[in-house]
Amino acid sequence: MSTIIAIDTGYGNTKYCRRVGGNLQCDLFPSFAPLAQSGSLEAIDRDGGRAMVVVEVDGSKYEVGPEVYDHLPGQFTRILDPDYAKSDQYLALVRGALAMCRRTDPLLQNVDVLVVGLPLDTYVDRQAELAKRLVGAHPLPRIDPRAKAEIRVGTVFVLPQPVGALLGDLTHDSSPRALNRTTLVVDVGFGTLDWYLGVGLRPSSRQCGSARFGVARVLEEVARAISPRAATDDRVHRRIDEAMRQRQPSVTVAGKDHHLNDYEGVVRSVARLGLAAMLRSVERLDSIDRVLLTGGGAAFYAEGLRDMFGDRVVIDPDPVFGNVKGFAAYGQSRLMRSAVAA
To answer: What is the pLDDT of residue 42?
Structure first.
């Protein structure tokens, strides 16, 4: 049976998805990959847990996994620049996701199709280079002594990230009407706000784009409003993020509770700036039949989009995993197409 793995290596979280039988198994971990300290275990979770793995890139070892916050040095910060996909940390996160997939199949040694994504502001310039980088052997810690200390990747497809959510959406409705309607996908990722306008899957490339108004910008501005010193503190950002997602009334910074209601205006302000950047690219709104809102920060933009588009706005039922599930669907369709052609 062919193996298809989809990985969405975002600035905030790395999402991964693998089809097992008839079901998709998806999970995520924070997109941090600090250098491993001397003496770190090759697989920190020897007890069979899901905490961490240590992966190698060009001779350096990195700690990757769900509990990575406990392994960060004091000055560690996220990589949010356009060259993210070229960094060693990015490759460490991809290899970490492959290692996590190996947990469900300790003898996994070959991936027939790997599908990944890039933000729209880097897709054109980076996609060919990234595909080339990910093909071939990736050294990984062994869970089962019968397996090789690597996973070999055959074919790699790189997609613009918002296309994933649209592909996933069309798997539920592939009627002629759906394939011919004009859809605006608004993908609120951690680092970027991406938008993709197209008829069916055919893009209107000049009306697609990206801007740095993702979740990171929201957290930075809320943190700055609480305390200027907290604006660049990733640990404070994490607290704010968790409090917002869990709908907590307040967040604690420097030992003091701050009511989140007091900062709703800051969130709306960032969303307005992001939507203004999108409108300069999209311009004409009446030709848009449907707006699909996806991404981990979808809730920050829901109100502003509804003010603009009314009931044309549809929120992805699984916005965090919307793109990576669509990537998996794309990999499956390409594999089936190849089998038919053969």
So the answer is: 46
Pair 172, 155: CB distance under 8 Å = no
* Residues paired with 20 in a beta bridge: 23
pLDDT in tens, 158-168: 999 999 999 98
Beta pairing partners, 29: 14
pLDDT digits (tens, 9 = 90+) for 206-259: 889 999 999 999 999 999 999 999 998 888 999 999 999 999 999 999 999 999
Please report, for residues 239, 242, 243, 256, 333, the alpha-carbon distance to residue 253 in angstroms, rounded to integers and kept in the order given. Answer: 8, 13, 12, 5, 48
Region of 192 on the Ramachandran plot (φ > 0 left; ψ -120 to 50 alpha; else beta): beta
**115 — phi, psi (to 5°)?**
-115, 130
Helix axes 215-226, 264-282, angle to 10 degrees: 150
Rounded-to-integer distance, Cα 166 and Cα 316, Å: 10
> Which CATH architecture best describes the domain 164-213+266-318?
2-Layer Sandwich (3.30)
Alpha-carbon gap, residue 34 to 68, rounded angstroms: 8
What pTM value is reported for the model? Answer: 0.90
Listed in order, the ranges of the chain carrying CATH 3.30.420.40 are 4-160+323-341, 164-213+266-318
* Location of structure tokens 């969405």: 8
Task: Just give the CATH number of 4-160+323-341.
Answer: 3.30.420.40
Q: Mutual orientation of helices 215-226 and 234-245 as an angle, nearest 10°? A: 110
Report how far residue 194's alpha carbon sits from residue 148's, in angstroms, rounded to the nearest whole number.
39
Cβ neighbour number for residue 189 with a 10 Å cutoff: 26
Mean pLDDT in residue range 108-136: 93
- The 10 Å CB-count burial string (b at 16+, else e) for 54-92 is bbbbeeeebbbbbebeebeeeeeebeeebebbeeebbbb
